[in-house]
Write a structure and sequence with these properties.
globular; two-stranded antiparallel sheet; about 450 residues
């Protein structure tokens, strides 16, 4: 497999002093047209993994209303199951990131996919809320690990001038998975009683395990990672799990963790509770709310693609700043202004666009912040630290909604998170086009 560093040099504009490669062709699909076969296989494997990851995670928010009614769980406790899933994913992501640096990106990705697929199936057979809480928490370990391994894998495989668009396009798979979950919900709840439908929703979550067969056969380890681990084996200089907190890496790790906390806290505050907001405060049925969620999901998908293009066009940092401000404005409009349901449906598209599109730059950004020997650990920790703190938001929104409206609770925590996202992103450098080498 060609190195992500030296492949396609005839298309590059290089700033040698900064080891940066900028794109000549800034069109969205330029990266895909120029891919070789191993790169395309990795691209589709990671995109599918993200889609199935998104599908598995969004199943619980879609059935949380049924869980509340069936087992008489209050909103705070129902949100706690979402929170513990995300907290566990933070731990799983850090562990998986470290495993990436020790045993390889592809093998780690296989392990994490099997993990969260199996425990999604376990969720289908639980007999009470306490069992579901445990099963979702354990599932979170694989859920967080899958993102960490997949993001490093695709980030190292794709050449620097295309990295933002490629990784961002892979991220759009989350919206596809979310859409699959919503369609599955609409189908199952139309033909089954809710007491059975929610179990089948979780059973569908075992499907990701099939992706492992493709990974084992077709996806290769990035050359830069293979070379780095070979050097470490020869010299005995293995990275320590705490190394990302030492020396000049400490500041990077702190700021990057705050960026991911803000972006994910805002996202989860919105997406976890919007289905419940539509059925309670907007008085829509589960089936009739599907169209509103579809507008949100389509906006999210378009946001991912536009964000992927902008990540290479204007840079990762500018993408974060613009989209965090847009997300603040749309959250306030969606939750605080008394629009008709028809207008609310229209607002779903721009809300999904701004509340999701910035993720397209996140994988490439974190990949470029760390040297190869620490990339898995650094990327896995920072993203999943943000996920862990952001995990508190579903619980806090649910808890606050017991003393105010759900709309107010969503707005308070989402806006606060996006303000943090903006401030931390402003404090970090631009990383667009950085070349990844085995020696750095």
């Amino acid at each position: 497999m060609p190195s992500a560093v030296n492949h396609g040099e005839e298309d590059m504009t290089t700033e040698a002093s900064n080891n940066v490669v900028l794109p000549d062709d800034t069109s969205l699909l330029a990266f895909y047209r120029d891919m070789n076969v191993p790169e395309r296989r990795t691209f589709w494997a990671c995109a599918t993994g993200w889609a199935l990851d998104g599908m598995d995670f969004m199943i619980y928010p879609l059935v949380v209303g049924t869980i509340i009614a069936m087992w008489h769980v209050d909103a705070g406790m129902a949100g706690l199951a979402g929170t513990t899933t995300l907290l566990a994913s933070a731990i799983g992501g850090w562990i998986a990131g470290y495993m990436c640096d020790r045993i390889g990106r592809v093998l780690t990705l296989q392990i994490t996919i099997i993990w969260f697929a199996v425990f999604s199936l376990v969720c289908a057979f639980v007999q009470n809320f306490e069992q579901l809480l445990i099963a979702r928490t354990v599932l979170g370990l694989g859920f967080g690990g899958e993102w960490a391994a997949g993001a490093v894998l695709i980030g190292e495989t794709i050449r620097p001038q295309y990295r933002g668009r490629a990784v961002g396009s892979v991220q759009s798979g989350w919206a596809v998975g979310w859409g699959i979950a919503v369609l599955t919900q609409a189908l199952l709840f139309s033909y089954m009683p809710p007491e059975q439908a929610w179990r089948w929703m979780f059973a569908v979550g075992v499907v990701p395990a099939l992706l492992v067969f493709y990974l084992r056969r077709y996806v290769e380890e990035p050359a830069v990672a293979v070379e780095t681990r070979a050097r470490q084996k020869a010299t005995g200089d293995r990275p320590a799990i705490w190394e990302i907190f030492s020396g000049p890496m400490l500041k990077t790790t702190i700021l990057a963790s705050l960026v991911t906390t803000g972006c994910q806290g805002g996202y989860y505050a919105v997406t976890f509770w919007v289905p419940r907001f539509l059925t309670t405060e907007r008085h829509l049925s589960i089936v009739s709310s599907t169209g509103y969620l579809a507008a949100l999901i389509i906006g999210s998908f378009v946001g991912y693609l536009v964000g992927a293009w902008l990540a290479d066009r204007i840079g990762r940092r500018n993408l974060f700043l613009i989209f965090s401000l847009g997300a603040i404005a749309l959250v306030l409009l969606y939750t605080q202004v008394e629009f008709t349901n028809q207008v609310l449906w229209l607002l779903g598209f721009p809300l999904g666009f701004f509340a999701s599109g910035y993720f397209s730059g996140m994988g490439a950004f974190l990949t470029e912040l760390y040297p190869t020997r620490l990339r898995g650990s650094g990327q896995g920790f920072c993203y999943n630290f943000g996920r862990g703190i952001g995990a508190l938001f579903p619980f806090l929104v649910g808890h606050l909604s017991e003393t105010t409206t759900l709309a107010n609770a969503i707005a308070i925590f989402a806006v606060g998170a996006y303000v943090l996202f903006f401030a931390a992103a402003y404090a970090l450098p631009e990383t667009r086009g950085r070349v990844l080498t085995a020696g750095a």
